[in-house]
């Protein structure tokens, strides 16, 4: 590849990133925002947005796909097959909270995009793997339904991000709180 093609690819990637970041900010505040408003917020011409994305829906699909790919990369980076399960859960949870804070609009969108569906399934498979390992190591009760456990875990993350008021503070502290709730519930630590 020649230097000019590399520069063009880098410029295109920067342009796409600028557009999607501006679209996320604008659509989170105004879900009805138009391509023209997104272009203005990104500081680019409307034709630049249309050159990169065939439609508003294509832009949103691209944003949703990018967000799920980032979550998938965060789960993989936590090493669900090899790292201690509690370490994986904490690291993945903190990373997912950070990603969800940057992609609130995109991650709330329904999608029928096959690439996004694959990313979602990879995330769920990584989650299932670490929960199974946690159960095998005695971190989770042996009779716990792991599908239900995953659903509760993901609900805790979603509620943390979408609750009122919006979460503030350190993602590590929020991850600790989520995992404490998942693994210990809200019952007192010692019973009479």
Care to give the gist of this entry?
Helices cover about 75% and strands about 0% of the residues. The protein is mainly α and about 190 residues long. Helix 2 (about 35-40) packs across helix 3 and helix 4 packs parallel to helix 7 (about 115-135).
Helix/strand-derived category reads mainly alpha
Tell me the span between the first and last alpha carbons: 71 Å
Beta content: under 5%
CATH topology category name of the largest domain: Tetracycline Repressor, domain 2
Overall geometry comes to: elongated
The helix-strand sequence is: HHHHHHHHH
Q: Write down the overall mean pLDDT.
A: 91
- Largest β-sheet summary: none
**At the first level of CATH, what is the class of the largest domain?**
Mainly Alpha
| Spans where pLDDT lies below 50 across 5 or more residues | none
Q: Write the CATH homologous superfamily of the largest domain.
A: Tetracycline Repressor, domain 2
In helices, the fraction of residues equals over 70%
Number of beta strands: 0
What is the level-2 CATH architecture name of the largest domain?
Answer: Orthogonal Bundle
Pfam family, one: TetR_N
Organism: Micromonospora echinaurantiaca
Keywords: DNA-binding
InterPro entries: Homeodomain-like_sf (IPR009057), HTH-type_TetR-like_transc_reg (IPR050109), HTH_TetR (IPR001647), Tet_transcr_reg_TetR-rel_C_sf (IPR036271)
